Amino acid sequence: MDMEFNALDKLQVGQSRVLTVSEVTALWGETDPQYSPANAIAALQNALPQEEYEGLFPYRIGTQAWHEYSAGKPHYRGDETDYYSYDNLVAAITEVANLKYKVEYREAHPDNNRVFRLDKATKTETLIYQNAAFDSAESEAALIISQTVDFGSFIKEGTDLNRKRELAAFLANIAHETGGGTPASPGFPLAWGLYWNEEISCINTTGIHYVEENDSFPPAPGKSYHGRGPIQLSWNYNYGLISAIIYGTKDKLLQEPEMIVQDGKLAFMTALLFWMTPQPPKPSAHDVMAGSWTPSDTDRAKGLSQPGFGITIMIINGNLEGNLDESDRRIARRVGLYRIIAARMGISTEGEKLNTAGMSPF
Prior knowledge:
Residues 144-350 form the Glycoside hydrolase family 19 catalytic domain. InterPro entries: Glyco_hydro_19_cat, Lysozyme-like_dom_sf. This is Chitinase. This protein is α+β, with helices and mostly antiparallel strands and 362 residues long. It has 14 helices and five strands. Among the domains are: 16-30 and 98-153, no CATH class; 197-265, Endochitinase, domain 2 (2-Layer Sandwich). It has a five-stranded antiparallel beta sheet, with helices on one face.
């Protein structure tokens, strides 16, 4: 059970404390009112109304079209509901908007870090991860660099064009990650985003996958941490970290990873947290699309100098999809989806670097 501490005390991993308003400001900075959960629905509806969203993804899992196409196939589940519904997306954006995330790391050593979570409504701060060497004698002389993410800033930073491009980029990438259909399917491949909610080879199997020994986020016996949800969350350490951000405890998704395929709102939350969270030396995809990322000299030397959709591909899967143009089917699908979604929003992608040609991984 979490324990509560005075704000002057040093937290241990898994421990929480309730802060005063002044302590929240001192430790986490000012909270912008526009990033509140109450504003999440309006931001999404302004960028992409429900009718447009549903028109983009007619074969998303659990819809009538999905059932008609999938019935009788090995992966079919007759009780599947509209997992990627607009309502679930709205609920996920609203819920994550109540959370802040802060990573502190020792200068020049981004892996030597600790991570905090803040529930904005209750002002409860929790230490959810700390590298074993963070407070060692060798580390204490190094400066602490801090990065804070307000998850309520999704599609709420930058210009109106930035905001709509961010939503288009988010949806295009998750639609690619979950795309179904075959070349013979109507509207293939662009109409088939959000078809899957689980790694195909793992559906209806008992195999154990993506398990790695990890002291901070240990796997539970008999549990598989294969790709689930719109971003295909994988590996026990990622399940544990995302669980800690959402619930304040790593154990929820480590013990019950299958929750992600049972709850569309939760699934969208995992994707949003991945999208919004920087992974040094990678920036967050959010910062790239919001226009707040400044490439370093190292980034520029790797061809990572033009903010836009192409950089988000490098963040998500740069090791496999770097330095490719649209002659590659994966890049073609991502870019095609992005263009279609942007067009539905009435925005242009003119002048934006969409593919990864000339780019090396971060």
